[in-house]
Amino acid sequence: MQFFQYGNEGYKSVLDPRTKLLLLIVINVVIIGTGFTGTDFLLRIVCAAIPLILFLIIRRTRTALLYGLVCLAMFFGEAVLIPHTRGVLNLLIVITLGPFSRILVGYAFAYYMMCSTTVSEFVTAMKRMHVPDQISIPLSVMFRFFPTLAEESRAIRDAMRLRGIRLRGKNGGVMKQIEYEVVPLMMSTLRIGDELSAASLTKGLNAGKPRTHICHVKMELWDWALVLLSLGFLFYMLVLR
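Request: output the structure for the sequence above.
Response:
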């Protein structure tokens, strides 16, 4: 058993997709439901550290560094600025920092899940959980939709640079942004959706019969350790807190 393994794309996390899905739910519950002091604050730090460690394991060093710096600033504001300010300033900090701090960690873990989980692994895990195809198929399409859309957006910007199109300064503006970026991206969105739907039909996702899977999905020691940690978080949130 290894927490990560080396393949064609470098080190890749082998956490089971079911573990990732449970962690995604638990991290969002803890981050949204806890406060800024005491045990609540310690749980927030632990939940924030999980995506950071996982980013490092899959060699997303730049993402981990940026995420870590933002988390440090966020926790500094929660631990120092909020308790030691009063009045309007305190209200402004809470309004600004509160919603952002409750979104960042969950978003970071969801991004990690997208980066480290293939569609085959996700579909196999959903089948092991006996999730209906009406749920697993749209989710599996979503796993490919957003990365493909991001690649298409980068391709549009590269094409603009190749043609010497600049939207900053006097040549910029909302209408130019819509004309050169938003409209092509919307057209690409329609095409991507059609292509992913056709790919799903080609792979027989709507056949209505049991399908075989070639990918290996198995709960390992680290998976069970993280499951126990997640259950401990839920026990604190629902019973002890």
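DSSP finds eight helices and two strands in the chain.
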